[in-house]
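Standup notes
- DV: blocked on the single-chain target, sequence here:
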Amino acid sequence: MTIESTRTVHRGRVITVNVETVRLPNGHVIDLEIIHHPGGAAIVAINGEGKVCLIRQFRHAANGWIWELPAGKLEPQEPPLHTAQRELAEEAGASAHSWTSLGPYVSSPGVFTEIVHLYLAQDLKTVNMSHEAGELIEVHWIDLEEACTRALDGDINDGKTALGLLRARSVLQRSR
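- DV (later): unblocked, structure below
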């Protein structure tokens, strides 16, 4: 694939929207609307009782409250693990001694460049939370198996959260 031309139609605080004319591997040329996003990190934090931290957060774009893992946007030049560590403290009031990568998640590859890096965090301790003024967040600790069931049943419908929970459960089962 080659990019023949790019026209920026919007540049915001977080995203840039381009119309990109690309030549696909089969030679076909097409205009694509691409939303460039810096990416993020999401954390499956498991405490000593086997409970996972889920946040219930108000999301205007989702039309209300949804269940999510603690997560956030990568800052410029910030490694994904540092983002995960920062967001776990800010949103959940926790820090972790043990971190395991659960791999990347591509949120919507037809239009977004966003990649969310998923992590399993264990050996937790409590730290001060620091929610931003525009964040409406409730912190909940739920049994991991219950959370996975809710993801499979569609009660938890955020993609990064459902995949992160299922990947974490798989890693934990293999390590037993």
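- Follow-up: The beta strands are 2-11, 16-23, 29-36, 40-45, 51-59, 64-68, 71-73, 94-106, 115-126, 137-143.
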